[in-house]
Fold this sequence. Notes:
Strand order of the largest sheet: 4-5-10-6-7
Structural class: alpha+beta
Radius of gyration: 23 Å
CATH class of the domain at 309-462: Alpha Beta
Shape: globular
CATH topology of the domain at 309-462: Ubiquitin-like (UB roll)
CATH architecture of the domain at 309-462: Roll
Bound molecules: flavin-adenine dinucleotide
Distance between the termini: 47 Å
Largest sheet: 5 strands, antiparallel
Number of strands: 19
Amino acid sequence: MWQDYLFATSPEEASAAAARLGAAARIVAGGTDLSVAMRNGQNEVTTLVDVSRIPSLQKIEEQGDEIWIGAAVSYARIIESPLLREKAPLLVQAAQEIGSVQIRNLGTLGGNLATASPAGDSIPALMSLGAEVVLAGRRGRRRVPITEFFTWVRQTVMEKDEIIEAMLVSPQPQSSVGVFMKHGLRRAHAISVVNAALLLDIQDGMVADARISLGAVAPTVFRATEAERALVGHPLTPSRMEKAADLAMAASRPIDDIRGTADYRRHMVGVLVRRGLEKIARGEKPALMPPLNRPGFTFVPAPTEKEIAGGDRIGLTVNGMKTTLIGVRGKNLLYALRGIGLLGVRDACSAGECGACTVLLDGRAVTSCLVPAPQAHGRVVETVEGLSHGDELHPLQEAFVTHAGTQCGYCTSGFIMSAKALLDMYDSPNEELIKQALAGNLCRCTGYYQIVEAVEAAAAKMSGRTGGR
Ligand SMILES: Cc1cc2nc3c(=O)[nH]c(=O)nc-3n(C[C@H](O)[C@H](O)[C@H](O)COP(=O)(O)OP(=O)(O)OC[C@H]3O[C@@H](n4cnc5c(N)ncnc54)[C@H](O)[C@@H]3O)c2cc1C
């Protein structure tokens, strides 16, 4: 577990700290990969260098004919960004397939790239968008095309003193259609068995440009260039699509693992590429999910090492009260909150997968087991304890009781906090939105129907309607 925590205020400061501290230090952004790795004892880290409060890493903006997407921008912000929804919807599609709402509120593009998993879901979309990775180190900045960034499974060209500052992408041409597809073992929280990002520019009925990037079927995500070539200069006919799908399968070099055999993965490459091309040929515009939490992002400046006593002391607002927590060195937010008696914040999986520890951080649902406690410094935390007033339960709590949305009760506070984030955004969310908002919460007693009904009933009561279901 980490001993020291420092917030970098610039890429230069982060890279100098990484170089000075060497193997003992790790960069942290959203913490969703690193927290799990540290819990599993995969690395001996003593110092965490937090890059999430460096202004350039949090920017999404147009710069000339490119879009700058800071490395610490979360998936949720990608989904919410009007600029990216309009000009890079392929990336938005990929972001909405990642993890669950809690993971999307924390996880970042920079973390996905640095982890360099061949199954990373943002990577095929960035590759088809022709992204360049901006690396910042002691010797300055350099731009690396994303096709040259990954060298092997979990390996990249990044030097030890370098951090990822941003991704630069070109806007999708107006005449193009992008489709991101992910095949996993379940709808949420699934590592891709295969993923694919297709971007086709079709002009006068002919394919003018084709980009097909495939993930989880080789040591790194790659462009299926032969398949792309088979499409360019031709109309999108069934035989062309079939040929491209066959060439994409032939280019794959998958492995057998717990999620699927190599043969199955190769077969699924053909299925996804064919399906994607058929969607594009039918002129189907992929649906973009509405934001699930209140959008908006407040940049909180980095505190000094002294202010947070190297990560041992943090100041935050908890359930409306300004609070100082002392002795949080090495802790995650889950245990920092439990340490002050907020026992509604439950630990079950410690890996961000069950949602029992869900709290709201600046109004967004997050799994507090993945949040290093210092990340909450200067921010607003809400837990289930803040919902009721004396004996008066919050409508969500009341509805969980009256609709039998709670059985053993262990997961209930997490469900309620995820639902609270949703109802802070929507007066009357439909069933699909409720299911999406709750996809990151597991109930081992299998009371999902009642839970969805409880949220509908609470929404109805809160907005002055009668009923629910
Ligand atoms: C329950 C769960 C579900 C998940 N589901 C998915 C999924 O569906 N699809 C998917 O692709 N991933 C998934 N992930 C993995 C993870 O959420 C993503 O890889 C995420 O993008 C990591 O970003 P982060 O900011 O949290 O990274 P962190 O955990 O903060 O960091 C990860 C690694 O990147 C390094 N790093 C972070 N930022 C930088 C930077 N700017 N420069 C240099 N190095 C940096 C860190 O040192 C660390 O080695 C899931 C994880 C969990 C726990």
